Amino acid sequence: MSRGMWFEGDRGVSEVVGVVLLIGMTALLVGGVGVYLFQYGDGVQESGPSFSPSTTYNDSDAGDGQTLRITHRSGDPVPTEEVSLRVQDATTERGTPLEYGGSALERQVGEAFTASETLVLDRTAFTTRSGAPVTGSQHLDLGEAAVRIVWTTENGKRSEIVYEWTGPDRTDA
User: Fold this and answer.
1) Distance between CA atoms of 38 and 57, rounded to whole angstroms?
2) Which of 48, 81, 97, 142 has the most C-beta neighbours closer than 10 Å?
3) Which tens digit of pLDDT belongs to each residue from 149-173?
4) Cα–Cα distance between 74 and 22 in angstroms, integer?
5) Residue 95: is its pLDDT beyond 90?
6) Which of 127, 39, 49 is nearest to 81 (CA)?
């Protein structure tokens, strides 16, 4: 046997060893990623519902006062048990602070706020801080108000604002 033939036969062994090592490293990497995902997969955050709103603000000083109409144009149905409507700084035309009653969303749209439905915020959705209803002689003023629809996960660990509107006279964000 010549010397060249002896070394020629060893070359194939080194290529096979390289391929086996490459496959082994790939299997370890895939296994590590799989273990990580199975162990921490619960931590993947679900996102809030897609909500494409259209807002109409009526700044009337007559009748019942101002109104805000929020129409769900398109997107996911928003279950009302997963969201809360939050209203800050609503007042009467004389500056009397008002509290949002908390039930306008559920009362007007039911179990889910679906596409083409409209939520109307008018004086009937509010009470005075003492709990008295807003009477016909008091006009709603939303000029400095902030309105948000906030989605919260079932476990309450995460929330997301899916809708936000601020009145034209509001000075802070």
Assistant:
1) 48
2) 142
3) 998 887 777 888 889 999 888 887 5
4) 50
5) no
6) 49
